[in-house]
Sequence to fold (292 residues):
Amino acid sequence: MNPESRNLIDRDAELLASAESVAYKELDDGTSLMSHVFFPAGERVGARRPAILFFFGSGFDTGRVSQFAPHALYFAGRGAVSILVDYRTHQQHGASPIEAMQDARSAIRWVRFYAGPLGVDPARVIVAGALGGGTIAATAGMKHNLADDQTDPTDVDPIPDAMVLFSPLIEIAKGGYGSEAFEQNGLSARDAALLPHIDKGLPPALFLHGTDDRITPIGLVEKFVHRMRKKKNDCRLVPFEGRQHSFYNLNVDPVTYDACNAEMDEFLVDTGFLDPAPENTGGEVGEVQEVE
Fold:
């Protein structure tokens, strides 16, 4: 193992040290897809807290599940059960983007199925994701014709109650970022397009997007938001002037990272999915416990 790879593993271990890692899905080959759960302080049994599922940024090829650990720690301090979800990618699992979309729905169902042990309110399950992770988070709320994974309990609702999308891939151009995973699996990148799935009654959505994003132009996001609003959906856009597609990461820009947390916090409070912050909050993450 080269030193760079070892450093990444060590850094991931450090970021996930205060999380409880639990398998949310077993694959046919016997491997497990893991969720890394950051619990708020206080008793878990009987609690009905919001849950936020974070899906790391990718082009459906590879990514790091620890990417949103700083965000998860912040929102655990705000009283939300915050979960980093490891979904299938082409490089690690030989998986297609459609299977990644199914994993997002599986993770939502897992949270609702174990809402009691997790201390979660099943009516306040929020998804958040970046790039391809933002796409699979959005398809969970929008692409209702997506085939269910055979291992899913189909009597449990896979639709999130709200969506927070950081630089999502609203559509993928042929030969563009994220397209290779579709081509390698004999799929069309049109299968990831979100615009055709805009309809009435979709979950409230917040877009956090850089005006200089060269992967998904801001104009395309504005078009999406406009169409969502025409269908009477609650859809909001916070543009970050001069930023590209990674401005929300703590290790890229601490200032815009803080701003993104503040915008997400305000959105979730405004929509009723997160309690307002008390005047003096400790913001400490509680001791993790095993899910029974």
About this structure: The CA atoms of residues 200 and 258 lie 32 Å apart. The chain has nine helices and eight strands. The chain has one domain: 48-270. The radius of gyration is 18 Å.
